[in-house]
Amino acid sequence: MSQPDADALVVGGGLAGMAAAIAVAQAGLETIHLAPPAPPDRRTSALMMPSVEYLQSAGLVNDPEEIGHPLTQIRIIDATNRLIRAPETLFDAAEAGLAAFGWNFANMRLMERFQAVAHELPNLRVEAASLATLEAGTATLADGSRLQAPLIVGADGKKSLVRGAAGLVARETAFTQSALVCDLDLGRPIGGTSIEFHYPQGPFTLVPAGGNRANLVWIDDHQVLVAAREGSPESLLALLQEKSQRLFGRISLVSPAFVFPLSNLTVDRAGTEGVVLVGEAAHAFPPIGAQGLNLGLRDVADLASALATVDRSAPDWAHVVSRDYARRRANDLARTGGMVDTLFRSLLAEMIPAQALRAGGLWALKLAPVLRKQAFAVGMGRR
Known about the structure:
FAD/NAD(P)-binding domain; 6-stranded mixed sheet; alpha+beta; 21 strands
């Protein structure tokens, strides 16, 4: 093989890819980041405190209050008409001795911060180019040019080309549900409380975005959401009033509504033979329990840890990193993926035994402080 162009090649221009490229460069590796142009990501991410702490330690976020909004409470309302309904439940960060469970950030604001940090790293080169093929550490770009690196980081999403080229098999299950997201202005503010109305086809969640603003994540059958988005603004607002049980006064739209199909994606291993997968290249699931980017940032943190302990004078150092990374990620990916999938399916279950288990679980969390604290730790991704 000819002289490599860099120590590492990071593929994928989303938040997980940008965070991974920065982490690899901060570990001292000459890094090339393939980040093809993409439309602005108008979504938001609710990052739990371990993720926020990682971002602060990596210099990616200084003061979360500058670009985000604290999540101090989580309120769950069973809005179904099922025979067995769960109690309304409130989780308060103060009960766990925390000022907040986490922070809600606009993805565009996070990306601005990440790009500013990346710009200051002399050993990180960002290329606005797309990967066409990958073989034996050689990446062929869409323009026909080639790049070589011993370590390849795939952060190129659910349809990851890097994953396929490495022979890492993904299992994906598509759901009939999709998610509608948009920003709302409420007649009455929700403060720092994330409010989840649980309906038979999925939750209707309002996440605090400062002042009277809230970010909506509404999960329902795909056709229902498409019809809601394509109807008149008045009909959409009437649906939002109904879904929110008219608890927040007058509601108005302050952004376009977008609909995203939902699926569950898992891999048996997140790394092999000098290739590692981060973000949705390794895992994807419905936006339940605020786990998506949180899990991706834990990927990045474990990649940084694997790089910090490897002897890069060894000829097979990249293979060692990929094996170590896969080992570090195995338990977290299995636990979190299983938890989110079980929770999502329990919300949709029509069988009375499943309804009873879910309602009983919420009653237990409502009444038992010890169980609530354990739930806090799992939901926040504490390890």
